[in-house]
Amino acid sequence: SYPSKAKIFGKSVAEFGGSNEYFDAPAIFNPGTGDYTLSFWVYLPSGTFTVNLFGWYISTNDHWSWSVTSSSQIHSISSKVGGVSSDGILIATSDGATGGAWQMLTLTSDRSAGSNGMTIYNNGSPVTVSLSISNNTTEADFTPSTAIEIGRTSVNGTYGYASSGTKIAEFRWY
Length: 174
What we know:
Layout: E1 7-9, E2 13-15, E3 23-25, E4 36-43, E5 50-59, E6 62-69, E7 74-81, E8 84-85, E9 88-92, E10 102-109, E11 118-122, E12 125-126, E13 133-134, E14 148-150, E15 152-153, E16 160-161, E17 167-173
Antiparallel strand pairs: 1-2, 2-17, 3-14, 4-10, 4-17, 5-6, 5-14, 6-7, 7-8, 7-9, 9-13, 10-11, 11-12, 15-16
């Protein structure tokens, strides 16, 4: 879906207005049971924010999402495949995403490494983990049959959107 209020800059930067604005990306992010990397530039608004960056949602038993909160700079990545929590990470950092500046965020998932297989990088440096990481099922098959939604996420059918002033650029998955 293309939001009528979203601003597009060049070929790959989108600015979100805070509600009902998101983009659908094709359902081609299908790492199956393999490793994966997600990478993008993001400009987070200054002040207090919760930014629902992107994800896909089929049901409460099949979803994947990444959100960032200014409170303790928490990254929240949540997923279930077939009703089983498969990759999950909740990180409170002192070197995580901050408001008022562009930053490159990257997530790598080495699914054969179990609970130590996921790393978030901010501007090329791994963020410090001070909360839990769980990877209960490293064999889960990530093959979503729905589009990735950039600018909104859901884990229970209720959607959250990117905060007003959020910009996302050069979103890539490998």
